[in-house]
Each structure stands twice: as structure tokens, then as C-alpha cells.
Write a structure and sequence with these properties.
2 copies of one chain form a homodimer.
Chain A lengths: L60 H14 L13 E4 L13 H16 L9 H6 L2 H5 L3 H12 L4 H14 L15 H12 L3 E9 H12 L6 E12 L5 E11 L4 H10 L6 E4 L5 H8 L6 E8 L6 E2 L15 H10 L2 E4 H4 L8
Parallel strand pairs in A: 1-2, 1-5, 2-3, 5-6, 6-8
Antiparallel strand pairs in A: 3-4, 6-7
Helix pairs in contact in A: 2-5, 6-8, 9-10
Chain lengths: 362, 362
């Protein structure tokens, strides 16, 4: 990347909520990629120490940026050496570690939970937006407003204990399948990113997820799927209330009270709240990750900021609207972010050109 | 401990705030300990594997409880073996890891910061409670209400960036001294508890601080003083707001908005929010730690709950009011908590009888 582009800062991020202010369920038009050639850069020489790392990555600027970052921060002789305890790397989840199209997985979960919620509260059966969800009319569901969606999220993610929620989410994940691949959502993780997680951990980095998705939801499977333990998952979080059941055993009840909206500026704020250190490396894929990368890369010494560009309609999805890709309701990567990436020397990862394979099952 | 005592549950914890609803700065009457003999229990045989662990602990039930817990949770042949990744131990700070009398250290910090805050905002000079603090009249300061104290906390802990705050707190800690020992507050840590932290970590446990004190404040020194990194400090936390300085560099501004009141039930809620796992062991010293111990010990398998009883006026302080000790404005250990400890088989640690030494400098 070069920095000759006069990139204007995105002045006023919409911080009012972590979700795009439009309906989320519209289908995507998968237009062919126009400008993939803007993304990749020529390969640089690898050191022998790196041989074998990141096998699902094509040799090129993106792979090299990761290898260079790790080498210059972990070799004791390096001027930008980072002590092991300060090695923190943060990863967005949706669109960065796993598929986010055509709808965020957790939103699918919430929609699927509506019948169970209505069974417990029959008065919701004829009330909107539950009635529409129960109708199964996908077009009508796709037109639900953000306000409707929030009602569904609160109804399906709160009002149960933390242990009940974890059991429900786990059961759903064991059976639900993505409509395109007909596989569990937990298999739709990007093999090249799993390799980055492993490579960073093997290099002494502590890897965190910093997601706009629900913290409690992601914690259910992050350890198994990504090797990231619950205490290293930062996400959008609601309050709980401590109480006792009839046997005097304590529980934590999930409440419809937002404590952390872990998206956009909330990601930097959430990193401070939950980690308390500035990361050295950050990976994202959308405007929601901009502040996380800014905050990470504003620290001293060697820093790594990377953004996944979804430019591979054949193997996954293609959406931007940066780089001439079609616009998207979910996970927007805007031209303004693309310009900031150039200016800030963040590396844009082309799924099409930088990744040999997308999934482990490919 | 035995469980024959019919201990009534403390029914209505004051959850409205994390501070005792009285003035905090009153001196303590250090009455002699009446009932230390209730606390200790006869020593049990130690295994050879434990030889040399916890050298500042007297042989006795408290030391043995720690050794037994570690052995039965880390030996692979044990029926209550816990895998390393699930080994979480949480520690209250004030009164459990370091001295909390006669006033919480962070409150002293806030009072000491008032002149600097008033210098920046001269309009506060004649406004209460700042005027009283500036007067230096210790009796008047001791009579300040909780509402006054909150004003002081907000004025001295918010309105600066996270980096400015950390620098201010660090500078204060380097020079401020406790009036009784004339030593830095960071030297007034309990040597026996440092040994527990080290012993648990050597046994694969991840040690966390879960404090009613300010998360940002404790993170400044926890690594150096306790070997606990910032990301393992859970405390009372306020919101921040992401912004940019005139050079476009991002900052996080500390805001007077409470996100987590990490005391009483808030400790269990904070553990869920920030760790996302139920601890296996928890250490506290006051009613503020009750729910943390309940939440910890309600899990399956081997659990360890311990409470430090301050019954050593000669070497530290003596306050309860449990066990016939004088009442206290700070760090109350009530008879109800004492009864619950007996019922729940939590171990009460007598500072007088269980600890050979209190401080490293002793």
C-alpha cells in the first residue's frame, strides 16, 4: 500500500447502535469483482524461519505483512521487539473469521428462536414483529426495520439465565446450517485466518475476538472453533442480574440492558474496558472495524492493521462497496475505509488473490 | 469450619452503590480481638509435594485448605481434576491483597488529586465538597457524605484520557505513603496472599483481581505488585468515549458514566461480563465479596472460598464486626457473612493466627 492518497477521515461514525440502519436480511447481488488488482502487491522474500507458516496464503504482500510483523516484534534483536506479555492481537469475527452473508449468524439464531419464545409468551403470537417472523415470509422478514430487529434480539437473547442461554445457543449451533453450503455455521470459518490465529499464538500473541456480535453468543463456540477462550472474547454485552433460585442456588439473569455496543468506536472502548491494553495487531473487514484498527495502529513501534476484502463471489461472497464491489447491507467496506487503509498503511487482504483456499473443507 | 450453624442468608444486599452508605474516613477504634480462637482449626498433615509452598502461612486449616484444593484439582488422577484452561481464581483487592484501612487507597488518591482538579477548574474552589477537601480539616473531610464523595470521585477519575489518568495515578503511587507505616501503598500488600497468587499460578491457575475499586486505577500497578496483568483486573468501570486530538490521533476520554459497579452482586455480574467463566476459587474479606464466593462455590466439583478476617490490631488492623471485632466503615465482615461462611464451608483466614508475617518488609 502507498500513502499518496489524500484520504479524508470519516468524520461522523454512526454510533447510535451497532447495526446498519437498514433492514439486514436483503439478499445480495453478487456482482463480479472489478478491481482486485488494486489490492494485491508483489511478493517479498520470506525468511527460512517462516517456511511452512500460513500454508493457505498465497505468497504476496498480505502474507508477507504478517510474517514481517511477527518477525520484527518477536526477535529479541529487533528494534521493535515487543515483550510477550504485551503481545495482543484482536480479530473482528463476522466477515473476518467466518461468513457473515447473507445475514449475521446470530441474527439467524434469533429468528430461529422466535417460535420458542412465542410458545412461552403466547401474547406475542399476534404482535409484530413476531407475527411476521412466524409467517416464514422471507421477503417480509427482510423488510423488518432495525427497531423490529432489536425487539427480536431482546426477546431471544434476554430473559433467561446465562447458563440457559449458553445451552440454547449450543444446541442450535449443533443443528443449524448455512443455506448456501448446507454445513454448520461453525464450519464456515476462514482457514487462512485460523492459520493466522495459530501462527500468532505460536509467536507468543494472545488472540482476542472483538466483535459487534453478542459476547455471550460467541463465547459458546469460540474456544472450540477458534481456540479462543471465553475470557478473550469481547463483544456486544448486556447486563445481568444476580439472583437465587428456589433452592437458594445463585444465577445470572440476562437483562435487556446494553452495557457495551462493541462496534465502531465501541470496539476501541470495549478493548479498553475488557483488555486494558492497546493491541499490537488488529484484523477486520468493515467500517465497524475502523476505530479498532486506528486505536491499534496509533500505538508506538511495530503495528499491524489488516482488512479482509470480500472479492470472491465464486468461493464466498463479493461485497464492498469499496474496490468497485457491490454494496451490502451487512459488513460494508466503504471507499472511505479503503482510502484510510492506504493512508494508514493497513494491508487489504484479497480473499480472491491472497487465499489459496477459503474453508478447511474446500 | 462446620456447618451446624443455622445461618440466615443476607436477604437484601445494598446494591445501589459499591460504597458503604456512611462516611468513609472515620478513624477506627482498634479493639483487641475477642474470638480469634473461633477461626483456626487444627493442622492436618501436609503432603511432601506441598513442602515449601506458602512459607508465610502457619500450618493449620487455612493453609491446608489451599494445599488440598490445589492438589485435588491439578492431579490428573483426582476425581475433581480441573483442566488447566478452566482454572480461574479471583481475588478481591482492598483488605484481601493489601491494606484498606483507615481509608481505601483510591479514595486517598482522589482526595489528593482535588488541588490539581481545582487548579484546572477554579470555579470549584469555593464549591462543596471541594472547599472542604482543600481546607485540610480531616474531621470535616471525614464527615463528607457519600454523595459528596461521588462528586470527588467523578471529578478526579474522569474528564481526562485513559493515558493521562494512568500517568497521574502512577506518579501518585510513586510518592504517596500510608500514614501508619510511612511506606508506599504498593508495599502494603499481604505477603501470604502474594504466595497464594504465586502458588496458584505455578499450579496452572489464572489469577484475577475482582475489586470494587476502579479498574483503571488497579490496572496501573497490578502487574508490578501482584503479577496480575491489566486484562486480568476486573473492577468498577466507567465508560470512555473515543475521539481524536488536533493531530488526528485517537484517544479514549474517561466519562462520568458507571458501566460496572463491581461490588456485592456486581462482582458475580462483573465476572460474567469480563471473564465469562465461573471461577474455581475466590478470596475476599468483606460483605462485598459474598456473592463472588457464592457464585464461585455454586459450581460443580472442588471449589475454594476463603475470607480474610482482620483480627490483628498489633500487626495490621482489627475490624469486623464478625467474631466480636469492632465495627468498621471500610471492609465490613458481618456476623451474617461469618455464618454463611460456616454454612458454606468457606474458610476464614485469621491474620493473627494463620499468617507468620503480614508484609514482605516485616
Amino acid at each position: 500500500m502507498t500513502d499518496e492518497h489524500p484520504a479524508g477521515r470519516v468524520a461522523s461514525a454512526d454510533r447510535k447502535n451497532g447495526l446498519d440502519r437498514r433492514n439486514l436480511l436483503s439478499g445480495l447481488t453478487l456482482l463480479p469483482l472489478v478491481s482486485a488488482s488494486l489490492v494485491s502487491a508483489p511478493a517479498l522474500a520470506q525468511t527460512s524461519a517462516d517456511a511452512g507458516a500460513l500454508p493457505s496464503w498465497q505468497d504476496g504482500a498480505a502474507k508477507q505483512a504478517i510474517l514481517d510483523f511477527v518477525r520484527t516484534t518477536t526477535e529479541r534483536s529487533s528494534a521493535t521487539y515487543i515483550p510477550p506479555e504485551e503481545r495482543i492481537a484482536t480479530f473482528d469475527q463476522d466477515g473476518t473469521l467466518w461468513v457473515e452473508q447473507p445475514v449475521y449468524t446470530q441474527v439467524v439464531y434469533c429468528l430461529d428462536r422466535v417460535p420458542a419464545v412465542v410458545a412461552k409468551k403466547p401474547e406475542l403470537k399476534e404482535a409484530e414483529p413476531f407475527k411476521t417472523v412466524l409467517s416464514g415470509n422471507r421477503e417480509a422478514i427482510a423488510r423488518l426495520s432495525l427497531h423490529d430487529l432489536e425487539k427480536i434480539l431482546f426477546a431471544t437473547l434476554t430473559g433467561m439465565t446465562t447458563e440457559e442461554f449458553a445451552a440454547e445457543a449450543k444446541a442450535w449451533l449443533a443443528t443449524a446450517k448455512h443455506p448456501r453450503w448446507n454445513r454448520p455455521y461453525t464450519e464456515l470459518v476462514y482457514q487462512p485466518m485460523l492459520e493466522v490465529l495459530q501462527y500468532l499464538r505460536a509467536s507468543g500473541y494472545k488472540t482476542y475476538i472483538v466483535t459487534g456480535g453478542g459476547q455471550d453468543f460467541v463465547r459458546v463456540y469460540a474456544d472450540k472453533v477458534y481456540g479462543i477462550p471465553p475470557e478473550q472474547v469481547v463483544g456486544t454485552a448486556g447486563g445481568t442480574t444476580y439472583g437465587y433460585d428456589k433452592d437458594g442456588k445463585p444465577f445470572l439473569m440476562k437483562e435487556p440492558k446494553l452495557l457495551l455496543n462493541d462496534d465502531k468506536a465501541g470496539k476501541a472502548e470495549g478493548i479498553h474496558l475488557m483488555i486494558g491494553r492497546r493491541p499490537c495487531a488488529a484484523f477486520g473487514n468493515s467500517d465497524g472495524d475502523r476505530e479498532m484498527l486506528e486505536w491499534t495502529c496509533a500505538g508506538p513501534g511495530a503495528r499491524l492493521g489488516m482488512l479482509v476484502l470480500h472479492d470472491d463471489a465464486a468461493r464466498e461472497f463479493a461485497y464492498g462497496p469499496a474496490a468497485g464491489l457491490p454494496d451490502s447491507k451487512v459488513g460494508r467496506f466503504t471507499p472511505a475505509l479503503y482510502d484510510e487503509a492506504k493512508k494508514s498503511k493497513w494491508t487489504v487482504i484479497s480473499m480472491k488473490n491472497d487465499w489459496k483456499r477459503i474453508f478447511a473443507f474446500g
